[in-house]
Amino acid sequence: MTRILYSHYDPSVKKTPSGIAPVITIEKGAPDALHRQVYQGYRKAIVDGNLRVGQRVPSTRVLALELGISRMPVLSAYAQLAVEGYFEGRVGSGTVVSRSLPERAAIAEIARGRPGKIRRERRRVSERCVSLPSPEGFYRSRGLGPFAVSQIAFEHFPLAVWNRLMTRHARNVQARSLDYGDPMGLKDLREAIAAYLRTARGVRCEAYQIMIVSGSQQGLEITARVLLDPGDQVWMEEPGYRFARSVFTSSGCTVVPVAVDAQGLNVGLGAGKSGAARAVLVTPSHQYPLGVTMSASRRLQLLDWAESSGSWIIEDDYDSEYRYEGVPVTSLQGLDRNSRVVYIGTFSKVLFPSLRLGYLVVPEDLAGRFLAARFALDIGPATFHQAVLASFIGEGHFARHIRRMRSVYAERRSALIESLREHLGSAVEITGAEAGMHLSAVLRGIPDKELSARGASGNLWLVPLSPFYVGKAARQGFVLGFGSTSLEQIPAAVHRLRTLLKSTSRLKHLAY
Length: 512
Fold this sequence. Notes:
Layout: E1 2-5, E2 24-27, H1 34-47, H2 60-67, H3 71-83, E3 87-90, E4 94-97, H4 104-112, H5 127-130, H6 136-140, H7 159-171, H8 187-201, E5 210-213, H9 216-227, E6 233-238, H10 242-250, E7 254-261, E8 264-265, H11 267-274, E9 279-282, H12 296-309, E10 312-316, E11 341-346, E12 358-361, H13 367-378, H14 384-394, H15 397-424, E13 429-431, E14 438-442, H16 448-456, E15 463-464, E16 477-481, H17 490-501
Parallel strand pairs: 6-7, 6-9, 9-10, 10-11
Antiparallel strand pairs: 1-2, 3-4, 5-12, 7-8, 11-12, 13-14, 14-16, 15-16
Helix pairs in contact: 1-3, 2-3, 7-14, 8-14, 9-10, 9-13, 15-17
């Protein structure tokens, strides 16, 4: 009889679970005694790195019960492992893998010799994967500190309210809620979002057109799967969102960069370069990264082009809730009378990034197609936080939070503009400060990528502007977030930015 005990250990997680046994094969009647089989199973798990230094192992009583054998062989195996230095007993912690053992790589080398070399030429991956940019640069230019982009004022989030709602829903979990949810998302949340979008953003939609996704990036991926084929051309704003670009290129599409000016994406230029493009991605309310707002004439021109060419418009409305100058700008989708626009929104900016909840508003006749694409991708979204968010919106907390944060961000935005003008003067061109949670500081002739890396080493998070361009960068500078930068931090942070800039040859004239 063979008995196999399976472990749930995940070697990618540094903090390993305690008291879980490794995979041990026990065969009664085998030539090796039972205690020897237990000993060998544990020794192999330690050598292979499946059990780590300091990790607690099950008690002899528990292991014997799980293996279906008497306790004596387990006691003998544990004793031998302790004698050889693999196990040690700790008061109050039971038996653990000895802390005096060398690191995993050294154990494996001593016990088994050096592993063979991997034959790299046979380890092929897909061209789709090869085309994806590494996210390392993204993480190098972001952190919790001055000018971090896509970060909120965490200290102002109503945690007490959110925790109360989470507790309420956690206490009322019912058995049927453990099943798969609706692939389109929780009905209550979709209805709440539809009501909000119709009122606040002028979006023409009903709840059945809304799909809940795990952020705008997944929304864009699903949209590309539904609307685009390999070889299709897609307009993208130049400069534009880098990780959206990777979605299109990995789908086999050709990205056509279309310049952005003071009125937004230049539709006439795009039509001249690629009039038969299958789709266009735009951020009309607050262009990313320059922050300009697409003019009414450009919006109508873009809608006319989409209708005449049979193309699709993908509208990314990522932070339009916050506008500080002029009248509120309604969505591009709200102007569409031919159902050519797919609208993408997210809660990452208005609530918090780790929530990982966003939404799509899809044309009515394509809802079934989007549903099929979503089901093939991950079946559907998790339901718990959807229910909490539905309550957060439905009970009025969401609207109050936006009103409160609009005032907070307006103060920080004004302080940042004032400090930039005071310390950098005419050397800086400020764009996109009318809305959102970031602005762009254009500084010509600087090595923005190099300065970004130097700033990050001092907890100054400067996202360089030049990598947002597909071709040769027309502008250099930085995308400066002010969402998580307090009023008290801003003057000193801008002063540090000026000090950093003074190291470049063209800006040495900046005076203290």
